[in-house]
Amino acid sequence: MSSIKEKIEAFGLNKVLSYMDDDYEKNVPKALDWVEKLDKDGTYKAAYGIVRDVMADPKNNWNIFMKKIYTELDGESRRMFLSNFIVNSAVVGNKKRMDLSRLEGINIPWAVLMDPTSACNLKCTGCWASEYGDRLSLSLDTLDRIIREGKELGIYMYIYSGGEPLVRRKDIITLCERHPDCVFLAFTNGTLIDGQFADEMKRVHNFMPAISVEGFEGATDSRRGKGTYKKVIRAMDILKEKKLPFGISTCYTSKNVNEVGSSEYIDAMIEKGARFCWYFTYMPIGNGAPTDLMATDEQRKFMYYQVRKFREEKPLFILDFWNDGEYVEGCIAGGRNYLHINANGDVEPCAFIHYSNVNIKDVSLHDALRSPLFLEYRKGQPFNENHLRPCPLLDNPGALAGMVKRSGAHSTDIESPEDVDSLTAKCAGAAAKWEKAADALWGERQTAHKCSECIEHKNKAG
Question: N or C terminus: fewer CB in 10 A for the chain?
Fold first, then answer.
């Protein structure tokens, strides 16, 4: 249960957010002063100066981004998202998670990724989920219990994947109703979003889709099936018309990287109303998964530079889950920032790591975080001092194999269990090539960082 102090902090922060609604450009600096006073531990100290600089420049792309958030989105949906994400998750929840983590010596994540079902209405090339059909699912009661237990640990962010999570859209809305203090997001192919579901989203205010897109029509349909792109665009049009927030999820492969890494693609998604873009790179998960879709070292390097360029130019929040390791000090899986619970209930360290010691149907979420594989993750993180090589599978294959064997974890693939040595062997060649490219990039970043520190020191010295 929340302490009186937490409730007071939450009340004050929510008042700050409501104050911003009146005239956000004028009131953000004042609100920031209040937030800084409440942040007694200085957890977000580095962000305050950045935000003030952004708000001082009307041409800054992040200033434009914020203006769009306040002028183009449904007000109640925006207020609930900001309250649940900033107040509940980032401030109140973060303190609880950090305190528990230090006390118990375990990772406690800020987000839980879970699969309500293995069922999907598409069969995408290279996707392991399509192999299970509709046989696996987490009951509504189990999903509800995970969320209730998570909130006791300070977790207020819940993300659905699958399968296609919107096959269970009625239950997803029910969970939004039961937990109005949480943020809910879903990785969805978007084809099941219609006007009726959008109205339900607008009613509960705390659900946001991340629509999977592989590029423009040709690239998307080649991997997801003919006609998929047009259905996706229709879903975006519905959400934009109703002023609902959504983003995109894009997997870059050896086949589509130039397209999805182009300004034309990002501009098109912004025009459609996307507020964020989450980039993933293709992983050859599962026996028989094609390896020719893996991005090359040059393609991954291309995305590294493109994402950083977009952040300076585009009013869109972008994350690259492999190339952004430098900002989060390595791998975020294993409960460090998130974990994955598949449709069978197996608690896995990552959506791409299908090994586990425990099933959520048998243990609490708290106990799952104490499982041997999760403790191995905590001991091993970061898996490389070069945070551009964060992943224990794609970037440091030996790291994953060692953890799985030491923890006695088993493959959770019920169709065709994959030996961890076979899996890591598929990534070894790509890892060796990326090592050279990443070490060169890391050297550049460290040199640039030292130079900026020298300049800042000289400026302060007068």
Answer: C
Sign of CA dihedral 26, 28, 33, 38: positive
The b-or-e profile of 164-178 (16+ CB within 10 A means b, else e) is bbbbbbebbbebbee
For the stretch 337-373, pLDDT in tens is: 999 999 999 999 999 999 999 999 999 999 999 999 9
| Distance in angstroms (rounded) separating the CA atoms of residues 316 and 25 | 18
Q: What is the pLDDT of residues 198-209, one digit of tens each?
A: 999 999 999 999
Nearest CA-CA partner of 386 in 443, 316, 448, 456:
443
Give a three-class secondary structure readout of 105-134. CCCCCCEEEECCECCCCCCCCCCHHHHCCC
Residue 32 clears pLDDT 90, i.e. is over it: no
Structure tokens at 102: 């230090």
- Band the pLDDT of 456: cuts 50, 70, 90: low
Q: What is the number of alpha carbons within 13 Å of residue 43 lying toward its C-beta?
A: 16
What CA–CA distance (Å, rounded) separates 96 from 108? Answer: 9
Q: pLDDT: is 340 or 119 the higher one?
A: 340
